[in-house]
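Much of what follows relies on a compact textual record of a protein's fold. Here is one such record, which you should read through line by line:
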Amino acid sequence: HMAPPHGTSIIDVRDPRRPSLLARIELPESHSHSHKVAVSGDLMVVNSQRHRRKFFRKAEKLLEAENALKKELGRAPVDAELAVALKVKEADVPLLRAEWANGYEYGGFKVYDIGEPSRPREIAFQRTGGHGAHGLDFDGRFAYVSTEMKGYRGNILVNFDLSNPEKPHEVSRWCLPGQESPGDWMTGPVGGLWLHHALRCGDKIWAACWQAGVWVLDASDMSRPKVVGSYNYHPPFFEPTHTVMALPQTYKGRSLALAIDEEHDDHPRGQPHGMLWILDVSDPAAMTPLSVFEVSELDSPWSRSGKFGAGQIVEHPTGDRVFATWCAGGLRVVDISDPSRPNEVGCFIPPPVAGFAAPDSMDVEVDERGVIFLLDRNGSLDVLEM
């Protein structure tokens, strides 16, 4: 779920026509949200990240704004003057002052025993740093966590060994060039350079690095992941890289990977919307795009009512069908049997959640039965079949 007090819901879908709530984990405090989850066997890993972190990041500018105004005015500024400088409401200034004084102590990830899915039991809380963990992947042994950490700007990759799930321990970390920064307080990513999400496939980790594009790490030695290639399409394309993953199949001897952007509310007019990319990664040191897939604004009645563009794909896919969310464009099903010409073979556009102007399809999963689960971040779940 996107906001406190809601954390994680566990839903019984053995009868997909009659899903039922088994358990709901509520957050113990209002400072965090827990909007990512990964499961392997009887273990579930969820993130803990500062709620409204972009707003609370303004606390880092508070002292700078106070000093600048004091110099300009010849006196200490009042909250109304600080609010103008920080572009917030006057009532927000005490919140930012408290954030600066107290910091955020709940960042990291939690591990649950879900042997009884109706009774999830927390067995570990691994604290990280800064505003906490954003994305994660979990393969039953290692958790690949995108998180802020002391001494870095923006999220980096920190890999944890969960062979003893009650005592996760860090085995390695990796960051983009330029992310290392001294200091206790994290000042956010530089120029949009940060790790959004990382997925492991075989002995490689595929890292989606926002405005830095696609990076591939050799993880054959988990204690020392090292870069084997990167490809960045920013600029000229505006929307950031959300997820990248390798495909199990090859095409005419080529190894392939998918990368998908994440559309944002502040999408500038005149720029292409977020897209789905198909990359030739036969040589990770020389990755090249084979094609892109995009959706016309004419293909959704909600395209001008809410953000419209790519969001997420089914992670670790198999076969030639890609299931991709498209925010106000719903679900798009894309045939990539010819990766040079991806072709849409189906779509489903849900109605908006009550109180919202447009749907916001943000995540999708397909189980071994072929049942599709489409999640709207505003609070609905559609269960579908082709």
Remarks:
- The chain has a mean pLDDT of 95.
